[in-house]
Amino acid sequence: GAGVSQSPRYKVAKRGQDVALRCDPISGHVSLFWYQQALGQGPEFLTYFQNEAQLDKSGLPSDRFFAERPEGSVSTLKIQRTQQEDSAVYLCASSLAGVRNSPLHFGNGTRLTVT
Amino acid sequence: AQKVTQAQTEISVVEKEDVTLDCVYETRDTTYYLFWYKQPPSGELVFLIRRNSFDEQNEISGRYSWNFQKSTSSFNFTITASQVVDSAVYFCAFRGTGANNLFFGTGTRLTVIP
User: Fold this and answer.
1) pLDDT (tens digit, 9 = 90+) per residue, A44-91?
2) What is the pLDDT of residues A90-109, one digit of tens each?
3) CB contacts, 8 Å: B50 with chain A
């Protein structure tokens, strides 16, 4: 597609459930990022992939968060045993690799609500 | 450590007024990149502009203009003759030397009143 696609658009989970959020980046973009945006805040970095390699996962808040990109295209962010503090919008972005001033192109996000 | 400050949390203007959104950054890097993004109610972050630290030339794109001043570590964004469609949250972001990810400010919510 022309842009970054994320699904589902909305997700409601009961506390303790596992969730999986999907991101389909722009074709040809080898860099992929996940961000978490709490209500009224700016996006905060979670993790970064270059192709299938996860080069930076320093932003993942706990070991309940796991991301993968096995074939270097679609990525999945998985949250295990969800907690209420995990409620946020999860944004995926992609960009051209190796170009420092290349902008990130964002998807519409997945709004996760943990009840 | 890098830091991006958007001191204005919310701004309201009447349509056709000009408005400036402030962004101040802190870094020890000599090479870095600055960005502005717009987030309308739909939620998608829309890229507006990027600047390199070695290029202080200001830029104008239609009703939008950006003023980059290294001396004051500021990268301000001005909308001329604001329109209702400009209502959104605007984020300033920073990428440092050797970094891949962007570091975002907390955003400024702009409301343009018709």
Assistant:
1) 999 999 999 999 999 999 999 999 999 999 999 999 999 999 999 999
2) 999 999 876 666 888 999 99
3) 101, 103
Contact residues, chain B, for A90 at CB < 8 Å:
none
Sort A80 into a burial class: Cβ within 10 Å, 0-12 / 13-18 / 19+: middle
Task: Give the SS3 label for residue A49.
Answer: strand
- Closest residue to B33, CB basis, from A42, A55, A101: A101
The structure tokens listed for B15 are 């349509």
Residue among A11, A41, A7 at smallest CA distance from A24: A7
Go through A31-66 and write b for each residue having 16 or more CB atoms within 10 A of its CB, e for each that does not. Answer: bbbbbbbeeeebbbbbbbbbeeebebeebbeeeebb
> Which residues on neighbouring strands pair with residue B77, listed in sequence order?
B21, B66
Asked if A31's CB is within 8 angstroms of B100's CB, the reply is yes
Alpha helices by DSSP H, listed for B1-114, are none
Contact list, B45 vs chain A (CB under 8 Å): 43, 91, 93, 104, 106
Give the CA distances from residue B63 to residues B36, B55, B60, B78, in Å, rounded to whole numbers and listed in that order.
15, 21, 7, 8
Q: What is the pLDDT of residues B34-73, one digit of tens each?
A: 999 999 988 889 999 988 898 888 888 899 999 999 999 9
* Option in B43, B100, B105 nearest A108 (CB): B43
CA distance A95 to A93: 7
Q: Is B101–A89 a contact, with Cβ atoms under 8 angstroms apart?
A: no
pLDDT of B99 > 80? The answer is no
